[in-house]
Design goal:
The chain is an all-alpha fold. It has 8 helices and no strands. The protein is globular and about 65 Å long.
Length: 177
């Protein structure tokens, strides 16, 4: 019963929100089409402004992957993390997640395909992906969009939050699985 109600809500939530926004706009006599196109123009300008930041992130990720630094760091951390019941397969996710969500999902897909969905490493990797953020992407895109160039404290706090998320994921998975 509860599951079917949640399915209905999830199916109709977005259309209902869109209908509510359009209805409120019509009631307040907002020129909907003109407002929408103005927003689309602004969105395009933002997209053009953040392209250099996105190119920098893509180049950095490619350099890290191609150079083998991620694998070297993973090999160096493996003995320490084995003490905390962290499989070596999850180390690349810890290193890549702050840089790129796509790269982290690619690593996660490899883990899930190679080890299966019920393996501890797959479950831990899934929780890690969900409990951390793509810090460098967020800084590049959002800060770049509004022209903020002093990132020092945001970077430190973002990386600290990623670290705490990974530690929490490890703790929770050790308790749950």
């Amino acid at each position: 019963m509860f599951q079917s109600i949640m399915n209905i809500i999830s199916l109709w939530a977005l259309p209902a929100i869109l209908l509510l926004i359009l209805t409120m706009g019509l009631c307040k006599k907002v020129p909907l089409y003109e407002t929408f196109t103005d927003g689309a123009k602004d969105g395009f300008k933002v997209a053009v402004n953040i392209i250099p930041y996105l190119v920098a992130i893509i180049v950095a990720i490619s350099m890290f992957r191609a150079s083998g630094i991620i694998e070297m760091i993973g090999t160096a951390l493996q003995p320490l993390l084995a003490h905390f019941n962290v499989p070596a397969d999850t180390i690349p996710i810890m290193l890549v997640r702050s840089l790129s969500g796509s790269a982290a999902l690619g690593v996660f897909s490899d883990i899930a395909n190679n080890l299966g969905p019920d393996d501890y490493a797959t479950k831990l990797a899934a929780v890690m992906v969900g409990s951390s953020e793509t810090t460098f992407y967020v800084l590049a895109v959002y800060f770049g969009a509004v022209g903020i160039s002093k990132l020092r404290y945001a970077l430190i706090v973002g990386l600290l939050a990623d670290f705490i998320g990974i530690v929490a994921a490890i703790s929770v998975c050790n308790m749950m699985f």
